[in-house]
Amino acid sequence: MASLRRFSPLPGFGLAMGYTLVYLALIVIIPLTAVGTKTLTMGWDAFWAAVSSPRVVASYQLSFGASLLAAAINVVFGLIFAWVLVRYHFPGRGLIDSLVDLPFALPTAVAGIALATIYSENGPIGKVLEPRGIEIAYTPNGVLLALVFIGLPFVVRTVQPVLADLEKEVEEAAAGLGASGWQTFCRIILPHIAPALLTGFAMAFARAVGEYGSVIFIAGNMPMVSEITPLLIITKLEQYDYAGATAVASVMLIFSFLLLLIINGLQGWMQNRHAKGS
Amino acid sequence: MSTSVALHASSLERHETASTREPAWVKAALITVALTFFAVFLLLPLGTVFAEGLRKGWGAYLAALINRDAWDAIKLTLITAAIAVPFNLVFGVAAAWLIAKFEFPGKRLLITFIDLPFSVSPVISGLIFVLLFGAQGWFGPWLQAHDIRIIFAVPGIVLATIFVTFPFVARELIPLMEAQGSEEEEAAVVLGASGWQVFWYATLPKIKWGLLYGVILCNARAMGEFGAVSVVSGHIRGQTNTMPLYVEILYNEYNYAAAFAVASLLALLAIVTLALKTLVEKQTRRQLQEITEKSGE
Question: What number is the ipTM of this complex?
Answer without folding.
Answer: 0.89
